[in-house]
């Protein structure tokens, strides 16, 4: 709800143009509700999605703009089957961890290739640039929309409760002490025993590798597009820099 408030207090309160860059699957299902609400409040939304996708379909409350995707529907489907098996199989943490890493690696490669083709597609970029969006509403779990927003010089609003590896905390220099802030996948609460605190410190170390393979390629892509050195943390700092302007 805080997000909606934020979107309503801008200078374009009369009805703004929002570029939405969602992420496939359950992420999109919750974001779709926000897009529907934005439409109800008189904003105009363009949803940007790969032409091959599972859930992001045309609706009357937004304009769907698709771009070429370097994989077939079958390839995408088989990836999702792998992923759902993984989520449903109860397994030892370590086994689970290695499987997650393989799948994350594969997913990352798919998304990175797709993002690269998107930002290098002159037709699509020209259309987006000429559309003069007021804001990009993006799910930064795959930071393609974030890079795109920076490339188009449009401020971004991030739609995600939790960015892995505390990159948002790091990017915004927000304190996040391990003793009090429960980490991703630990199932800890904010009241932890000593052993839970140890677990709370160890899990993020394991996730660091995943974050590196998932996010580093976007930093290089951004460096290439913006022609300056961009780090992974920079990617998660951008919205603040924009807010400060
Ligand atoms: C750019 O994207 C459009 C729309 O998806 C597609 O028709 C076109 O083939 C793409 N161009 C390149 C060079 O990939
Ligand atoms: C990951 O990708 C490799 C090579 O493309 C493929 O052989 C493998 O089956 C994939 N694994 C999963 C779990 O998707
Ligand atoms: C968008 O258009 C402006 C004005 O024509 C241009 O200066 C800028 O380089 C364009 N940006 C991109 C990402 O193409």
From TrEMBL:
<comment type="similarity">
    <text>Belongs to the UDP-glycosyltransferase family.</text>
</comment>
<feature type="signal peptide">
    <location>
        <begin position="1"/>
        <end position="15"/>
    </location>
</feature>
<keyword id="KW-0472">Membrane</keyword>
<dbReference type="Pfam" id="PF00201">
    <property type="entry name" value="UDPGT"/>
</dbReference>
<dbReference type="GO" id="GO:0015020">
    <property type="term" value="F:glucuronosyltransferase activity"/>
</dbReference>
<keyword id="KW-1133">Transmembrane helix</keyword>
<keyword id="KW-0325">Glycoprotein</keyword>
<keyword id="KW-0732">Signal</keyword>
<dbReference type="InterPro" id="IPR002213">
    <property type="entry name" value="UDP_glucos_trans"/>
</dbReference>
<keyword id="KW-0328">Glycosyltransferase</keyword>
<keyword id="KW-0808">Transferase</keyword>
<dbReference type="GO" id="GO:0016020">
    <property type="term" value="C:membrane"/>
</dbReference>
<dbReference type="InterPro" id="IPR050271">
    <property type="entry name" value="UDP-glycosyltransferase"/>
</dbReference>
<keyword id="KW-0812">Transmembrane</keyword>
<protein>
    <recommendedName>
        <fullName>glucuronosyltransferase</fullName>
        <ecNumber>2.4.1.17</ecNumber>
    </recommendedName>
</protein>
